[in-house]
Amino acid sequence: MQPQDDRPLLFVNARLVCPASGRDEIGSLLVAEGVIAELGAKVPPTARAETVDCRGHVLAPGLVDLGAFVGEPGAEHRETIETASRAAAVGGVTTIVARPDTTPPVDAPEIVDYLMRRARDTASVHVYPMAALTKGLAGAEMTEVGLLLEAGAVAFTDGPRSVASSRVMRRAMTYARDFDALICHHVEDADLAAGGAMNEGELASRLGLPGRPVAAEALMLERDLRLAALTGARYHASLVSSAESVGLIARAKAAGTRVTCGASVAHLTLNENDVGEYRTFFKLTPPLRHEDDRRALVEALADGVIDVVCSAHDPQDVETKRRPFAEAEDGAIGIETMLAAGLRLVHAGDVSLHRLLAAMSTNPAKLLGLPAGALTVGAPADLILFDPDAPWVLEAARLKSKSKNTPFDQARLQGRVWRTVVAGRTVYPYA
After folding, report:
1. What are phi and psi of 111, to 5 degrees?
2. Measured between alpha carbons, how far is 295 from 312 in angstroms, rounded to an integer?
3. Domain 62-368 is of which CATH architecture?
């Protein structure tokens, strides 16, 4: 990141919303030397400060996107740290937690160091790397948890791959527990889901497409929850997509297992019917499910069973998406649209603004031990100013991501970020 501007920022007439403390009031906030210096109903003017009239719009902690694909190293044609961070800034994301399924994968301390140096030199937001859970993402041998943590990794995952071996997963959880490290896992039995293109069910049959059953997710999740209870490890199911899965998570939490889970904003706002006439930008991992499953996810978010909402940002180029549906690559971009798409749930009355922001900022920051997600004096000044009611139509060509495979192209959205601040420095709008 570039050196921050040392000029203080004074936000006035802002709706201060902090999901960590429950604060929701009209007031002011002063940023000085990269941190929040003062906030409240009345903050006195400060010499040299740039004053920003927020006009009653929401001033909240910056979003923390847990599990985005940033392209580097090896897939710079799909995304780079620079382009991903520019997209993040537009969307109000001040911290990207990057997946390790790159080429080579992030399974050694020197690759973690490389990513951190690249982020320091090219990113406009914070970028933290997750390390591979197994060497080469092969699922056979666990990585060096302690050394990777020392190098700067914030969690462990094999990205969109599941560890099939229960023995390997138990060993990884045991070692991670000893370091109090977080394991994030993709919950899908690869054998059972093999060859599937969309959610298994009536719609897949009518479209003539092979299905991926909900049972493939539930089987892997139930195994992991048993292993988490056995080892005492901190475990996060990266992306759940079904009513059955949230039921399993709820029971595990009630039993005292150290488990959390996430869902993508696409799975909370879209369903299998959006696939329509074989629209490949809606081909995701896990697949979009039945509307009943989507409603169950929304209720689980409102009830606190789902802890994290993420973008599941997975850029794909034109050659891999504009193919027959069953042959197209999975994945969609989402880092720039995560907040606006999530606000659909708020406007529909399904989820409170505080709950949504907690799932997008406070909770992922707490899980990873990051200094983010709260409006408190002395906290890093990672902030977003947004109008939750501003209407706009998304045009894919205008997105900052290098790839344009968004499922929200031409969607009518409500909620626009006006300013993003990282460590006291305005990164959007761009200088």
Report:
1. -75, -35
2. 19
3. Alpha-Beta Barrel (3.20)
Q: Coil, strand, or helix at residue 312?
A: coil
d(CA 255, CA 412): 42
Task: State how far the Cα of 288 lies from the Cα of 223, in Å rounded to an integer.
Answer: 22
What is the distance between the alpha carbons of residues 27 and 25, in angstroms, rounded to a whole number? 6
| Ranges of each domain in the chain | 62-368
Q: How far apart are CA 21 and CA 347, in angstroms?
A: 22
What is the distance between the alpha carbons of residues 11 and 343, in angstroms, rounded to a whole number?
A: 23
3-state DSSP assignment of residue 255: coil
Q: pTM for the complete prediction?
A: 0.96
Q: Could you give the CA distance from residue 260 to residue 238 in angstroms, rounded to a whole number?
A: 9
Cα dihedral 294, 298, 301, 307 in deg (nearest 10)? 30
3-class DSSP state of 65 = strand
Rg of the chain over Cα atoms, rounded to whole angstroms, equals 21
Please report, for residues 160, 162, 238, 248, 349, the alpha-carbon distance to residue 157 in angstroms, rounded to integers and kept in the order given. Answer: 9, 9, 9, 21, 34
Sheet hosting strand 63-68, strand order edge to edge: 63-68, 93-98, 126-129
Residues 129, 71: Cα–Cα separation, whole Å: 12
CA distance 419 to 92: 8
In whole angstroms, give the CA distance from residue 65 to residue 75.
20
Distance CA(427)–CA(201), nearest Å, equals 45
Per-residue pLDDT of the chain (431 residues; tens, 9 = 90+): 444 457 899 999 999 999 999 999 999 999 999 999 999 998 988 888 899 999 999 999 999 999 999 999 999 999 999 999 999 999 999 999 999 999 999 999 999 999 999 999 999 999 999 999 999 999 999 999 999 999 999 999 999 999 999 999 999 999 999 999 999 999 999 999 999 999 999 999 999 999 999 999 999 999 999 999 999 999 999 999 999 999 999 999 999 999 999 999 999 999 999 999 899 999 999 999 999 999 999 999 999 999 999 999 999 998 999 999 999 999 999 999 999 999 999 999 999 999 999 999 999 999 999 999 999 999 999 999 999 999 999 999 999 999 999 999 999 999 999 999 999 999 999 75
Residue 229 has phi, psi (to 5 degrees) of: -65, -35
Q: How far apart are CA 174 and CA 166, in angstroms?
A: 12
